[in-house]
Amino acid sequence: MEDDSLDVVRFRERLGLPGLIDVHTHFMPERVLRKVWAYFDSVGPLTGKEWPITYRHEEEQRLSLIRSFGVLRFTSMLYPHKPGMARWLNGWAADFAARVPDCLHTATLFPEEGVEVYVKEAVESGARVFKSHLQVGAYDPNDPLLQPVWGMLAEAGVPVVMHCGSGPAPGRFTGPGPVVRLLARHPRLRLIVAHMGMPEYGEFLALAQAYPEVRLDTTMAFTDFSEGFSPFPVAERGRLADLGDRILLGTDFPNIPYPYAHQLEALERLGLGDAWLRAVCYRNAETLFGPVA
């Protein structure tokens, strides 16, 4: 693990960055996280690859590791798979952010009665980012119950990291179609498309070109692992360069099947230049969330 940290530190130092901002990391209640790990342990049939968890550690060790990488801001991405979970998860995440100040206060949602109330409570209590998982939650972002919530988040300027691409396996409401309809109603929503929209990379990059508040995170994209089953099209690299101010570093730490540094290496080997890397790994998120104190 020490070698992992050294590799990340060398990457940062070469670019002259004070640190990294990672918008897609997972901290959640232990019993929930262990269920997530159990899912990844059995995910081989979905991807055709085994998915070992590289950083399967207790919370304090995970926090120590991500800080040793020089990650100055990160998130506690968490998500419900059924009604009645989101409010409880939001309570846990608020407590986590209070005791872990370098974590951006994260919240989540689900289309259910009362969602407008608890999302409003989370925003008013200081939530900086929301997570929406259309694949795990198996819900349409255009569900009528969610319409006032999207409007509220757009008005408040709170970003939403949304797993809406169809990787690693398609869901009933994944793919660009539902998101196209959502943005037609809420064009000012600060949507961060998780995993670069894998595997529908081109369609989601096109949405970022069409909507100034749409961004994408790099989570697992371009890595050897993902390239094995969902390669990023070489023809889209021009759009990656053009949208360099709208792409944010995300990693999926700790649930990744390779060292943290490999995500950074995968970005570097795209050959888009140091200025692009500095923006993606730090500057863009700093612009979105404000300077690191």
TrEMBL record:
Residues 21-290 form the Amidohydrolase-related domain. Keywords: Lyase. InterPro entries: ACMSD, Amidohydro-rel, Metal_Hydrolase. The lineage of its organism: Bacteria, Bacillati, Actinomycetota, Actinomycetes, Kitasatosporales. PANTHER family: 2-AMINO-3-CARBOXYLMUCONATE-6-SEMIALDEHYDE DECARBOXYLASE (PTHR21240), ISO-OROTATE DECARBOXYLASE (EUROFUNG) (PTHR21240:SF28). The keyword Lyase applies. The keyword Disulfide bond does not apply. This is Amidohydrolase.
